[in-house]
Amino acid sequence: MSTRILLTGVTGQVGGELLRTLAPLGEVVAPSREELDLTSASSIRNVIRTVRPRWIANAAAYTAVDKAESEPELAFAINAEALRTIGLEAREIGAGVIHFSTDYVFNGEGESPYVEKDPAGPVSVYGASKLAGEEALADTGADYAVFRTSWVYGAKGKNFLRTILKAARERDRLRIVADQHGAPTWSRDLARMTAHVIMMLEREASRPNLDGALDRFGGIYHACGAGETTWFGFAREAIAMLQEREPEARLAEVDAITTAEYPTPAKRPANSRLNCEKLAATFDWKMMDWRESLREVMAEL
Fold this sequence. Notes:
alpha/beta; two-stranded parallel sheet; 10 helices
């Protein structure tokens, strides 16, 4: 297989992994933020019309959940309005769009994992902007697959795991929220899944277009780590693994607290569980158990 893929968000956790994972599939064009301004429709159009990709993998996003409460225009520009432009341009050239969304499109009520058809109801500006992006992309008529994920982390970049491990070395006690439930997702697992999906869709596609594949397999999928935990459980497991590797190190004790004890500008969903059975059934891909992926990431740190 050899094709051209336009990749956005290459400096992010998922984008950085996609740059490596998608390379065997063909030519990956990964413009910088200066070259591709997602707040500018003309910039997006110019890049897509110049590159003329077969696939657009959109890993870029406004992800500052709390800051979005005071910057809603910027959050919606990047997470929603940009998707409308990407979708319209992709439809014009017959490109397929791979886009990443979030568990924050749901209100977090209940205790069951959400399935793709459950009603959305975001409780934050960030969640609302990501839902608006999903809807904008669908409205364009482009061929697309959206992968909702949760609690993304990896060995590089700014994420919960790296923050907690640093704090565990520097402090005596940590207070971590224990009443928000979900699944940590390794950025590399998402990238591997994306490459697998693209290859599978290419096998189904009729050249030179992708209509045959995405008509059957396009839409929204949930893709997050298998199993479930809380932020407290995630932190405790990570620190325990670090202690195994460095038995002489003095690391912080971890105390469980409630969301009410750790107020933030943006409300977080208490239930971030996502049911990934559709992904497994359609693409024969099961995401890694979060403990397994955590051990692999810890080995890289």
